[in-house]
Design goal:
Number of strands: 12
Helix content: 25-40%
CATH architecture of the largest domain: 2-Layer Sandwich
Bound molecules: adenosine-5'-triphosphate
Distance between the termini: 12 Å
CATH topology of the largest domain: Ribosomal Protein S5, domain 2
CATH class of the largest domain: Alpha Beta
Length: 306
């Protein structure tokens, strides 16, 4: 008998703002971030597995290389949490088709976890409320709740307390990808090292950035992009400074390291500029590959069931 399954499409993200507060006594930093979901997607299929086989995973797609296929995979962690909470049959098959860069500061693993939550809710008609989905999501990682909602949202706390933001317009991005990822904890540690001895204020949402979003003003948005982790990512990977310089020289409205990097996201005026910048970045020899995307994109959504 053919098993039943659900396919969920989940977006990557860029952080338009990532403001990092002081290191708390719990070892975490309070952050204020503005997320925008973009049109780079992973497809997450969940289906009933073979009896007795437990949770299995297979990973394909352009960016599949290096993604773990053990219980450290965030999709498996999400499945195990849902199985326990809803007493589901423990035999599940997960298929990830990856397009979101891995360890690129675009929250691909978090997006996959969000896909499993939405997929299992639908496959087993669980009727999980949005609030409960978000609660599960934040147990897995601070970027997971945003992957559920998509669009444009403000994240506070550890970035997991999401409120959607008033935003107009759509934005064209050119993403300069690196072949080697950066570890998020290592970037935070470097940020702490660079800030040693400085007094760091509690993070606040940037008013000029919110105003640019409300007005749908790409030019103003380009000028307001802000990432407190950028100096740390550039310190660990000095080539990122070069990438940022090339992008700005070739007419990007703004450029920023996405999250903890090493992806650099450039906001451009339109598709023609995107093409020009992609060519300039490719021929500069400072980036390993380039992707183009539009934001905002929808959060985790079901695209097929069988
Ligand atoms: P973060 O959310 O920590 O900022 P990121 O966006 O930089 O991470 P991810 O693609 O989510 O990057 O991957 C970070 C690490 O998580 C990877 O190096 C990988 O070892 C692990 N990982 C676990 N599950 C997944 C998954 N489903 N897809 C990709 N990476 C995963």
């Amino acid at each position: 008998m053919k098993s039943r399954g659900v396919v969920t499409r989940v977006p990557g993200k860029v952080n338009l703002q990532l403001s990092v507060g002081p290191l708390g006594s719990d070892g975490f930093h309070e952050v204020t971030t503005v997320f925008q979901a973009i049109t780079l997607f992973d497809d997450v299929t969940v289906s009933e597995g073979i009896s007795g086989a437990g949770v299995s995973i297979s990973i394909t797609g352009q960016t599949a290389q290096g993604v773990p296929n053990d219980s450290s995979n965030l999709a498996i962690r999400a499945a195990n949490l849902m199985i326990k909470e809803y007493e589901l049959a423990p035999d599940l098959e997960i298929k990830l088709k990856k397009e979101i860069p891995v360890a690129g500061g675009m929250a691909g693993g978090s997006a996959d976890a969000a896909g499993v939550i939405v997929g299992l809710d639908s496959l087993f008609n669980l009727g999980v409320s949005r609030a409960d989905m978000e609660k599960f999501a934040s147990q897995i990682g601070s970027d997971v709740p945003f992957a559920l909602s998509g669009g444009v949202a403000i994240g506070t706390g550890r970035g997991d307390q999401i409120t959607s933001a008033l935003a107009k317009g759509s934005y064209t991005w050119v993403l300069a990808l690196s072949s080697q990822g950066l570890s998020t904890p290592a970037v935070y540690q470097e940020c702490d090292r660079l800030r040693e001895g400085l007094s760091i204020a509690s993070p606040q949402v940037s008013e000029p950035l919110m105003q640019a979003l409300r007005a749908g003003d790409a030019k103003a948005l380009g000028k307001s992009l802000l990432n407190d982790l950028q100096p740390a990512a550039c310190s660990l990977r000095p080539a990122l400074r070069l990438v940022l310089d090339v992008g700005i020289d070739y007419g990007a409205l703004g450029g920023i390291v996405s999250g903890s990097g090493p992806t650099v996201a450039f906001l451009v005026a339109d598709e023609d500029h995107a093409m020009d910048l992609a060519v300039a970045l490719s021929s500069s020899g400072v980036v390993s590959s380039i992707a183009r995307a539009i934001g905002p994109a929808q959060g985790a959504r079901i695209i097929d069931s069988f």
